[in-house]
Amino acid sequence: MNKDEGVVIGFDDTFAPFGFKNEEGENVGFDIDLANEILGRLDVEYSFQPIDWSMKETELNTGNIDMIWNGYSVTPQREEVVLFSEPYIQNRQVIIVKADSDIQSKEDFAGRLIATQEQSASLEAIMNEADFAEALDGAQPVTYPTFVEVFSDLDNGRVEGIVVDELLATYFLEQNGTADQYRILEENFGEEDYAVGFRKTDEAFVEEFNAVLAEIIEDDTFTEIKSQWFSDVDSE
To answer: Where is each Solute-binding protein family 3/N-terminal domain found (predicted)?
Structure first.
């Protein structure tokens, strides 16, 4: 990475509250604000580039973008191709159904349809539980490019459940005033960390980046940014 020439941050511009376009077409969100603070302190020029989330690692490693920063979950599969920053927030992959659904557990999805975002940590979580995935109708989840489409499928009754990031789900339902229409199952696919993804060759820059991230967490700037977007989210 040549930080003197500026860096390009790749993100999914529908992934609220981490990075998305508001009604005025501006890039906003928790990760947007965090990027502004960290890269500002590093005195690095930067821009945000919406990307096809299913192509994010390819976009990074071909040099079209320099960072993946948008509620990006650390997974073993991704660690093989991406250098991660230190994590900064924990998340869970949860299962959401309609409030009146008879589904109470993972076992109840046998022979039924479930949806998630393509090439997401949610998809990886489902497929890592082979018995669960194989029991689904079609032996795999239905996938869509964005979580907006995933929620739409549940709303329209085309699937009976969805697997999504808990932080995204709770924000989405609160903002839309529809939390009482859905139910999050007690069973989930476990906890995970969010971090920023870089190319494997960017070790020097990532070291600088991690130092400023730690500084922002230590001086409570991180907490101030977090409180503008959601509450009760713990940093690492």
So the answer is: 6-233
